[in-house]
Amino acid sequence: MNDDTLHGGLVDPITEKPHFNRTDSKIAVAGHPIHAMLVAFPIALTSCTLGADVLYWWTGDAFWARAGLWAAGAGFLFGLLAGLSGTAELLLVRGIRSRSASWTHFVIAVMLLSIIGANWGYRLTGYEQAVLPYGLLLSLFAVGFTGFTGWHGGKLVFEYQIGVSSTGS
């Protein structure tokens, strides 16, 4: 009996394709992936946008509507930076590119960036008028998508060790 018969004819991609296991970050500073460092900002700013919207709804203070405008804008711009570094990782590292979970994370993250951008763009025409109800709804939607995207990104790091240096830098 050979190995193929023992395993039902399945092929182990790690032994068949050694590049599959090479997932070290190519876009990094001193071994620390840029994408992992940048994603914290749009995550936090998306949550801050929702918080500012809720506080505006509760208090009616224009300060919170203006804070939501700035948080949404900064979240979008930092999201673009995180997205560019993540896209570069996806395209440059074959071991990342060959996993379908990486593409799922990419697609969801692009959708999230679209929501955050729409939320910011909507506020640019009048930040106080934009909060209720559509700004608040977009913020809720963005926070939900942030959790969904983050879950998939975390799965890549914790289950597949994507972007984790194997050299112990």
TrEMBL record:
Domain DUF2231 span(s) in chain numbering: 31-165
Keyword Membrane: yes
Record keywords: Membrane, Transmembrane, Transmembrane helix
A Pfam family matched in the record: DUF2231
Segments crossing the lipid bilayer: 36-58, 70-91, 103-122, 134-151
Record's keyword annotation contains Disulfide bond: no
InterPro entries (UniProt xref): DUF2231_TM
Name of the molecule in the record: DUF2231 domain-containing protein
Organism of derivation: Sphingomonas carotinifaciens
